[in-house]
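ok trying this again, last paste got cut off
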Amino acid sequence: MSRYDLTDFEWRVIEPLLPHKPRGVPRVDDRRVLNGIFWVLRSGAPWRDLPERYGPRTTCYNRFVRWRKAGAWDRLMDAITAAHDGAIQMIDSTSVRAHQQAATAKKGVQIIVSVDHAAGSRLRSTSSSTRRGSRSGSA
């Protein structure tokens, strides 16, 4: 069992809610396909990187798209949250934001903050090595 695979409890909750098509070609194992879909969604990897143990990537992708259009994902998410009695929390990454400069920290630079407000100097948060290396040479 992979870290992204459904637990037995989750599968028992989800299985009765899956769309069933009794006609035509028998479907590939639903649990395996769902685990493949969840692997892609949780890992953030492209569909082409789906491991072979989940079956053909086109099967996983097509079922994901078909079920999205049919509203099956909404029903599944409602059932999972109801089964966990509201104790499950999900965060959509589109609502989590960081400042644009949060990812541009330089390695080895220390931030110095003056805590002696009585000394009369203004607060400094720039390393002294950064000021020494200024381009104007006036520092």
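PB: full thing came through this time. Residues 81 and 122 are 52 Å apart (CA to CA).
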